[in-house]
Amino acid sequence: MSFLEHLGELRTRLFKSLLALAVCFLVAWSQSARIFSFFVKPLQPYLGGHKLVFIEITEPFLLYMKVSLLVAVFAASPIILQQLWAFVSPGLYPHERRYAGPFIVIASFFFFSGGLFGYYVAFPYAARFLLSIAGDFQPALTVKSLFGFESKIILGMGLLFELPVAIFLLSRVGIVTPGFLLHNLKYAVLIIFIIAAIITPTPDVITQCVFALPMVGLYLLGIGAAYLVPRGHGRRD
Question: Which of the two ends of the chain, N or C, has the fewest CB atoms closer than 10 A to its terminal CB?
Fold first, then answer.
């Protein structure tokens, strides 16, 4: 394929991905109020019966837009991953193209698992800790700040849980080996905590650890996945 043909292929894959995202967004928009109630549910025990507030008149509308978009990203992720694989598959060997199904299933599984971990574990724990510090004050949480905080955790965890898949692919093409990953474990832990400090939506150490510790576990899981790669298949050009 020529350069222009590659651009045409990329445009086709992006269009199909955006179309899937748009369809999922419209479906989620029809149930956006119920979906937002689901997102707020883990925090209800700590609100003391108080309702969330909003300051700007456009906040509820924008909130439901963001809620629908977040759900659409997760719902359309298998299709987006399939389009990503379809774009890179022409550069793979025939025996490598059979990994399409496992790649889509496993990558989607880890993405959903990260989102569930963020919803059921990371977000409630971080919110409970931060609200416990403000025990002497009356909370008046805005819908914008709350969902912004929660969506960053859920989406961030979804992306972070793709780490084992990324390590496996890097090992498959010969860029890294299990021995290399184990030998540089201490540096990986340092980098993980730096990344967690950057992507954590709040500056506190507790929330940073909520992001970093699962990443360390995922890095070790990725090393285990790298051991599944047959040795001696050679480094890809």
Answer: C
In Å, what is the CA distance from 23 to each residue of 7, 26, 55, 65, 201?
Answer: 24, 5, 30, 14, 29
Q: Which residues pair with 142 in a beta bridge?
A: 53
130: pLDDT strictly greater than 90? no
**Higher local confidence (pLDDT), 142 or 28:** 28
Give the position of tokens 């859920």: 154
d(CA 67, CA 151): 8
Taking CA atoms, 159 is separated from 25, 83, 87, in Å, by 19, 17, 20
- Residue keyed to tokens 């369809």: 23
- Read off φ and ψ for residue 142, nearest 5 degrees: -90, 150
CB proximity list for 220: less than 8 A, separation 6 or greater: none
Q: Which residues contact 159 (CB under 8 A, 6 or more apart)?
A: 111, 114
pLDDT band per the 50, 70, 90 thresholds, residue 17: very high
Is residue 100 within 8 A of residue 89, CB to CB? The reply is yes
Phi-psi label, residue 234: left if phi above 0, alpha if psi -120 to 50, beta otherwise:
left
E strand or H helix that includes residue 47: none
Tell me the C-alpha distance between 21 and 47, whole Å.
Answer: 33
Q: What is the DSSP letter of 97?
A: G
